[in-house]
Amino acid sequence: MTKDNNYACRTALIIGGCRGIGRAIAIRLAKDGFDIIATARNSGTHSENLNNEICACGRKFTLLTFDVRDRDATAAAFAPLTENPPDVVVYNSGIAKDNLFVFMTPEEWDDVMDTNIDGFYHTVQPLIFGMMARKSGRIIIISSASGQTGQAGQVNYSASKAALIGAAKALAREIGKKGILVNVVAPGFIATEMTEHIPTDKVLPLIPLNRAGAPEEVAGAVSFLCGPDSSYIHGQVIPVNGGLVI
Length: 246
Description:
Layout: H1 3-6, E1 11-15, H2 20-32, E2 35-40, H3 45-56, E3 61-65, H4 71-78, E4 88-91, H5 106-134, E5 137-142, H6 145-149, H7 155-175, E6 180-187, H8 200-203, H9 215-226, E7 237-240
Parallel strand pairs: 1-2, 1-4, 2-3, 4-5, 5-6, 6-7
Helix pairs in contact: 2-9, 4-5, 5-7
């Protein structure tokens, strides 16, 4: 059976899907045979390029533009999806505003929590009832190695990513009996725009594989969790970190 037959007429929603890891996930799932719905704050070059790449894979592409921190705007954008939710939901929206905790401003704390945690509630929660009624679905949450072990200068980010892991494990216990699989992918140091400012000479010695990861390597783990070979994996954290956290 080909991948296209496995995933015929199936849809994947990638929340935060037009750049970096989210973009790589969207392209990989399109190659797997999924039609793609991606969200972003605004349309622009990144979304246009993604549209072209998804269409080149022979799949449909839909862009939803809103800020995940805005509950009302999210609800309006997701209204068409609540009764017929996508088969796969990937929560990848997230920001980092690093600072030592002693100097961390209220804005740096709130912005990270509002996006990384509140955004998860605003986007994923409205889709749960429809997935439960259908008795099928996959939810993959993109956390971070920082949420597994903590990183100095990232108290806000580490707290938010650890919270996502806790939320995923609790949600897995709630809805597993309805045929919905919930798992987490926890990337380490991945070469994206978010990590461009991080000095590699400081980070690479901490990674046994001695290199940064590629977004496509994270996308590969997500692809596995969306496919038939992961049907008994539930409530788990899949690290993609080159050995940074063991």
